[in-house]
Amino acid sequence: MANVPELLDQLTEDNHALTIRLLVKINSIHKTPRLRQKLAKISVSQFELHLPRSGMKDLRYLLSGLTAVGGLEIGPDVPVAFVRAVSEYLRTCESYGVSIGEFLSGSAKNWDKIRPKHQDLVRAHLNGTLQGNFPRLDRDRISRVASYLLIDDLARVLPLFPFHQPRLDSPVTVIRAQPDLPWAIVDEPYDALSTLYSHFPHIEWKSGDYCDDKICFVGVRFLSPLSAKTSLVLQKSLSGLHYRSTTRITGKKRLLSLAFYSEADANLFKFNLSHYSKFSGMHQQFVAIDLSDYRQGYPGLSGFFNQDVIQELQLEH
Q1: Is residue 206 part of a domain?
Q2: How confident is the model over 261-280, as pLDDT tens digits?
Q3: What angle do CA 38, 42, 44 make, to 5 degrees?
Q4: Is 160 inside any structural domain?
Q5: Which pLDDT tens digit goes with each residue over 84-127?
């Protein structure tokens, strides 16, 4: 057991890649009841002097994840150096704004409540992640995007677990499209696209180019129950048009928000939808929306094209 730090240090990947593996394992354990039941069996008495009792659940998840990633066994006589490293890591997570428990539950501390001395560090790391993934965007725009994501609790940074001696590896960024959605780990640019497209539709994130076309927002409120016929009408109305979309389906509030890159496409969509609706018997109304309304929705057309959601809504009615 005295070799625990050495066993972790022998893992070949860098701290960033290993921390991502660790978080993925912890999330898998959290989602699997039979694995969660094993957490209580992990002895944490030797850690209690270094951590407040409220952090014991996070500690058990972390130890279980380290066991899965490193193939080691957490026994009753853990080396003091390992106890300190684990305890310091959990405290650092708290300081950065997302603890293990918050990562698992999809919650986070409000940006204003994060200790001020860590705000600049977290902001700099998020700026670096965005700049590294989208190098063609200028730094001022990246900085504004990062500030928006942090203030609106849509992005946070998790520190690296010290598998090896501290290096210059960047921390792990987690992101989500809405504050009530789970955190997603940003391992490659694609992982952040749903959030970035939802909140910054005027930026072409895949290529890193700024879109200079005029953005035309169109809102459609559906008055008829959602059905497969609704999906078909929408698909036909949007066919061949250049747009981004978000949706809100809560109770009787079924709002489709679209951002078109040309006024001609926006007008054509309105004409198409009105035309096809007459033949389908579908009822809807166009409503005025702006970027703020658009940002409140969820990415894509899920709920309108997703058959499982359609069936669920039909059962409610």
Answers
A1: no
A2: 999 999 999 999 999 998 88
A3: 150
A4: yes
A5: 888 889 988 888 888 999 999 999 888 888 767 778 889 999 99
